[in-house]
């Protein structure tokens, strides 16, 4: 006869079943916890990825113009002036690597009675400008034209233009324009070398202490006011013998001095022209470092130098 299981055996079996169920419940709980932890980890990783992407986007644009240079002008050079050349100033024409700034007169923003024409042969680009209104022999500032010059190296520069008289045959008539550099360090007529003489426009030339300071320079033997008309910093700039196209750019009547301007720092500077004589034909303008040979500066094959 088979004996029934002992009480100990029964209790042990029950304990084993209970333990197995508990283990199964614990395992299920572990899987659930693991799943939740994984979801949380993926969520955090996704948030971090989005944050990094946003940070990269903000860092790459920074200024909102999309070029990544941080200056906000969109040209990518980082200087903020929008012209793409990295020099930090905006201009109309700039001095090139060879020390020459050049432009055609007909490219200027013409106002009032300034007129573009092409009837006179052999203009450098086929055209030129002239003042068709009344003359302003003692009143500078009429028909004002301004052009911004980009200068990358300080120093002394010479101003020259190609012109000719446009009426009659007398080379001393219809032969001049007013010129001023209002924000340059200095501008004057110069004659000779080592020593040189200088001619300044009024009223600065009427300041005795200023002239004394100029004459104290070792390279200057004498300085004074220009001969003839001048006022408010304007110089009368005339041609000599220009009955045909000629590079002739001088100041001081019967005391010819070439035109020079000094820039003390790199930057953009204003060159102003205004009407004086009617029918002076203005063809091409150059502003060049004083060490550049005239033959190179006045070469009509030299390209104009607009700011990029």
Note down, in words, how this protein is organized.
There is one protein chain. By secondary structure, this protein is α+β, with helices and mostly antiparallel strands. The chain has a domain at 93-297: Galactose-binding domain-like (Jelly Rolls), CATH 2.60.120. Helix content is 22%, strand content 30%. The protein contains three helices and 17 strands. It has helices at residues 7-61, 208-215, 294-297; strands at residues 93-94, 100-104, 114-117, 128-131, 145-151, 155-165, 176-180, 186-191, 196-200, 220-225, 230-231, 234-238, 246-247, 250-251, 257-263, 267-274, 280-289. The strands form three sheets. Strands 2, 6, 8, 9, 10, 13, 14, 15 and 17 form a nine-stranded mixed sheet that branches. The protein has a six-stranded mixed sheet with strand order 1-5-16-7-12-11, with no helix packed on it. A two-stranded antiparallel sheet has the order 3-4. β14 and β15 form a beta hairpin.
